[in-house]
Structures are given as C-alpha cells and as structure tokens.
Amino acid sequence: QSAVNVPRDFEGCSTLRKYFGQLHYLQSRIPMGAEQEAAVPIAWTEIFSGKTVTHEDIKYEQACILYNLGALHSMLGAMDKRVSEEVTIPQCLFSPTWLKASSRSTWDPAFYGIFQHPSLSPQVVDYYKEACRALENSETASLLGKIQKDWKKLVQMKIYYFAAVAHLHMGKQAEEQQKFGERVIYFQSALDKLNEAIKLAKGQPETVQEALRFTMDVIGGKYNSAKKDNDFIYHEAVPALDALQSVKGAPLVKALPVNPTDPAVTGPDIFAKLVPMAAHEASSLYSEEKAKLLRDVMAKIEAKNEVLDQFMDSMQLDPETVDNLEMYSHIPPILMEKCAALSVRPDTVKNLVQSMQVLSGVFTDVEASLKEIRDLLEEDEAQERKLQELLGKVPPAQGSPPPPSPGLAEVSKECSKYMEVHEKASFTNTELHKAMNLHIGNLRLLSGPLEQVRAALPSPALTEDDKQVLQNLKRILAKVQEMRDQRMSLEQQLREMIQKDDITTSLVTTDRSEMKKLFEEQLKKYDQIKVYLEQNLAAQENVLKALTDANVKYATVRKALAEVEHKWNTTVQTLVASYEAYEDLMKKSQEGKDFYTDLEGKAAKLLEKARAACQAAEANRQQILEKEMKKQPPPRPTAPKPALQKKPPELEAAGLDAGDLPPLGSLVLPELPEELRSL
To answer: Is the pLDDT of residue 540 over 60?
Structure first.
C-alpha cells in the first residue's frame, strides 16, 4: 500500500526502492514467476490509456515499480529550479542498468527538461541518445504502441536541440581563442541542428516553440555575424566539421545503479529466515572454497615459519636480551631492595664484627684452658716418670709413660674428649670466620652510598664501531619481529574475514547457473590480503640474509658482552648472597658463642679439677719418696755444706736436699741417665 500511494518527494523514492528490493528477495525464494506454482495475478492501471493490465508474474510488479520510480524522479527533476550547476536529480536515473530494467516501462518527457543548462549540453546529448536506443527496442515499442513514436520523436528533437546548444558553446570558445574559421563552422553546425529540432518539434506545446524561436535568434545572429566578419576581415579558411575535435560530454554526477540487494537501499531482508535447501548447499560449496583458500595460504605460512624458527634457534639471538646495555646503567631492583633494607639497619656490620670478636674471645679462652690442662697433665707425667726412674721401677730404655693416678686419668680422658670437640669446632669456627670476613666487605658496600654500589658492578666498554654493529643487529631483529607480527596479523585478518563471510543471502537471489561466477567474484575480496601475505613471505629471505651478515659482525661484541654479563651477574649474586647470609652468620655466631661458652665452663671446671689432681699426685710422690728414704742406712759423716751451696735442679724438682741422699757408694743404683749420675 505504501508503494502504491507514495508521497511526491524523495521519501517516496526511498519507499519504492525498498519495496522493489523486497520483491527481489521474495521472488528468489518463492516461485512466483509466470506459470510457476505460487504465481498470483498482479494488476496495474496504465496511466495513458486508463486500462487495467493484469499478469500472473512477479516481474510485472517489479517493472511497474521501476516505472513509477522513474516517473517520480522525473517529476522531482522537473521541479528543480536549475539556477546553478548543482542538480538534485538522483544519480541512479543515469544508470544504464536502470535504463535496461525500465525498457519495458514508459519514459516521462518532463524529465528531460532539467538539462537545459548549457554546460551540460554535450552530456545531455549522450543521455538522450541512450534513451532513444531504449525506445527503439522492439519489446518496448510493442508495449508502448503509438505513444512510442511520439516519445521517440520528442527525444530526437531534444538530441538535435542540445547538440545545437553544444556547438553554440564550442563556437563561442573558438571565438575567445581567435579561431575565426572554426567559429564559423561551429555556429553553422549549431544552426543546422537547430533547424532539424524545429522540424521535429511540430505539435509540441507553445513553451517549446518559444524556446526554439529564442534559440534560433541567438544562434542565427551569432552565425551571421561570424560569417560576415570572416568574409570581410579575417579571411580564415573554414575547416570541415569532421576535421575538428568532437565534443565530449562530461557528467557532473556519477551513475549509480539501483542495487536490489543493498541493505542500505532496501532495508533488512524480511524473508531472511526463508533459505531454500539449494542455497544451503551452495553455501556449503562456498565454505569449502574458502577452506581451500585458507589451507593453501596456511601451508605457505607454516613452511616459512618453520624455516624462520629453525634459523633463529641456530642463531641463538633473543631480541629482548641481545642489547643488555641498559641494565648496566642502574642498580638492579633486587640489589636496591637489599640496600634499602640495610639503610634502616645501620648497625648490621658493627653487630657482626662484635659477634665475631666475642666468639673469638670465648674461643681463645677455651683454647687457653685446654692448653693449661694439657700442660698440667704433661708436667705431672714428667714428674711421675722421674720418680719412677729414681726408684728404679722403670727401665730408662723402655720410655713408656707411667700410669697416671685415678684422678688424673679421669681428667686426661675428659680433656681428650674436650680437645676432640674443640678441634672439630675449631674447623667450623675457622670457616665461619672466613665467611664473615668475606661477607663483611660486601655488607659494608651495600650499606654505603649507591654510587659506590653502582661503581662496584662491572660494565662493558664498547667502541663506537661496536655500538654501530649492535645497533644494526637490533634494527634487523626488529625487522624480523615486525615481519612475524605482520604475518600473524594478516593471518588473523584472513581467518576473521573467512569466518564472517556469509553470502547465503546473495546465494538465495542468484541463479544456479551463476553460482560459479558468484563464487569467483566473492573470493576476489581476499585477493588484497593474499597479496600482502605473499609480499611478507617473500621478504623473509632478504631479511634472514641481512641478519646472517649482521650476526657475523656481532660475534666479537657478543663474546665481550657475555663475559661482562657473567661478571655482572656473579657480582650481583655475591652481594645478594652476602645480605642473605647475614642472618645466618649471626645465628651461627650465636650458636658458636653458646657452644664455646658452655665448653669454656666445662674446661674451667676441668682445669680446677686438673690442678687439684696434680697437687694430690705431687703430695703422693712426696710421701713415696720419704718412705723410700727411711729404708736406707744412715749416711757417712761428711763435711758441712757450704752455706751458699745451691741445690741441684734435679733435687729441687724432687723436693730433696743434697744432704738427704745416702753416700753414692753405699747404694746399689741401677743404670742412671747421665744427668742423674752427676747427682
């Protein structure tokens, strides 16, 4: 109903186009053509005869809608004021497709009145010639009957008229260029064509006759004046019209066809859910064509990617780490964290040094106590040996130590146990002190200014040539990554295009015989992205060749950077290890202090016990010696001792005076060592 009673404006044109498109969608799904199963009678009243014409063919409905669309555009065009070169007539009327589709309809002569603007004359002539050919079509002539001759005559009249106007302007242009001979022939041609138009205009309204008379006055006056001037003044040869450049029409608008499947024109397809099985089958075939295209492209991509991956693996070039110069310009975060932690603990090194000193002091005390015990035991053993030798109980040559007293035996046993523990702990203590001495220097560094920390870290010394080599390698590696990224992006775009590519709607409205052609046309949308991918794949060989050359030059720089990086990492790890070892050192130092404090207490007690046992053993030896002396006969009288005579050291060590010994001849003495014989 909206298409039958359209408003006389551009909104009405839009309604007709939408209805025409929906008819196209409908006839693609439902067999409503002539003599088909769902054909229904369609009736329209012919505007010129007033007769109602009925056909059981949906194409008749489409033809009538196209006719009314053309008629409405004609009316709107005739209403245009045409005061400038800007025209508002819709561009779709100039489309050959529209002309062909409308060949079964009637042309409205009022439409052509819009082209009376002179600058459009050459192009208007071309349009009228095309319209004339459409009217000469035998099918159109049979449909229009007598009116076809009248319209054809009118169109031919306008062809001559606008051709005359076109040559009028060409003559004026020749006049401006002072080509007076050409001016004459153009004006003469304009006059001839205008005369033909006047002949064909018989029976036309007075307005048309008036326009022709006015044009005759203009062209006739121009021709007479030009011919007179050339005959009497310029005397230029008048060339033949065929020898001159033909007048070319230039459209001010681009012809646009009415596309019945364009959603922007027809709106959404209201029959979209009605998809014939044949369309589904064709869609499956098209999907296979898309899949084949994707497989071919992916085979090429994967082959190139495999070569690229193998090449990069062999190079062992990581774009993210090939240039690690930046890391040498600052302290790494992990080290900054340790420096910050030590900044709030300023006594770290002091505490560790003090702990070392305390541990060393306790260690020294324990060692001194054990040494004193050992010295006491050795001294007691020596005294006991001398006594035994003196008493003749141990042969001097035998040399084995005499058995200690029970008290000293226990002390000796405990001392040996403590010495063994001390020796084992001494090794641990030595290692702990080495570790402390190693880490204290690092901890002092971490506790100091950051500039010193940064200065302590190794850094590479590259020449300008080295830097240039490095920059060139980075640039080519960036190209490799750019190539990878572009390849992935194009692949993703291709996959998305294929996934979204649904031409079911087009398949519904396409004849089966045209399917192959439609597939070819639709697959052309992938040509551009395929070209981009081919260019990307072809560039790989050149990129890898450039990378190979750059890597050869990079070998020396790479070795130097690797060595510096190793030193840098080792230094950082060592400093971090020193920080992390602090708590462990303090813990072990405390454990050492606790251990040696306990051992010191035990050693002190053992020392007291050793002293007491040695004193007891000494007292016992005195008693034994006294008893032995009482068993001997009284000594011979001897001269009194000199007042200042000094006791031999051997007697003093045994607690005896020289006068207390019996005469040497009255004793049966064993073989004595030389030092005892001298007594």
So the answer is: yes
